Amino acid sequence: MTDTDAFGGDGGLIAVDPVTGRQTALSQAGNFVDPAGVALAADGTILVSDMQAFGGTGGLIRVDPGSGRQTKVVSSSEFLRPLGLAVESTGQVVVAYTERPPPPPNPGIEMRVNPANGEHHLVSPDAHMLFPAFLAHDASGRVLATEPDTQGADSRLFRLVEGGGADVLLEGKPEGAIYSGLAVEPNGSILVASAGQLDRGALLRLDPASGAVATVASGDKLVNPMAVALGADGGILVVDRHNGIVRIDPGSGAQTIVSGGDLFSAPLDLAVVR
Fold first, then answer.
1. From 80, 97, 120, 126, which residue has the greatest number of CB atoms within 10 Å?
2. How far apart are CA 40 and CA 44, in angstroms?
3. Which domains does the chain have, with CATH numbers?
């Protein structure tokens, strides 16, 4: 799991035992300045996006899970503040870059990166998203992206169309929602974390076929939910900036804190090792 403020403020990567909740420092300092997104590469290494590394433009960093050793994959003046990551079946990595250089309005973009050599290109240059954040893939392999805020309007969930453009799958539910992390269940349903009003977060489930939206869980331990992942035991794991890692029963919505406090300062994203 990434934490943007751990280890004295530079952030880092923390390993968490999902059974005991035990936290272990996996990688810190080095290239890390503001580590954000995390994903597992095809070769078993860990990929981390850092929003401020390499002189402030940010970039993609590979971390060895055994030693914690960091290696730069890519950084470029084309990209600013990379956040969400999604690894495709081909091994290519899709990265959400939340800003890009002038001219304004500096819309965010998604890039596809070859983690072997850092080569990169636009995935969907005409998606018209202002602030793409977290990414996932649906059952067909298409990229899904959440947009937390569109200039003060409701958040949106997009499905990118290869070659340009994007479909809006979810917009403005519930009122005042700010969408963050997402994951796709085996049956194709899309789970989306939403920070609502009055410190009351929620986990929503979208049926992409019908468009129906249901609330899996809300309130209680969900204060400021961010990333979402499917646990190895069938539960849903949500990173909450306030409470740490929260497990949610996919049927009942019951919430349990898996791990909190200790090394955590501002947890943001997680990836599950299977």
1. 97
2. 6
3. 2-269 (2.120.10.30)
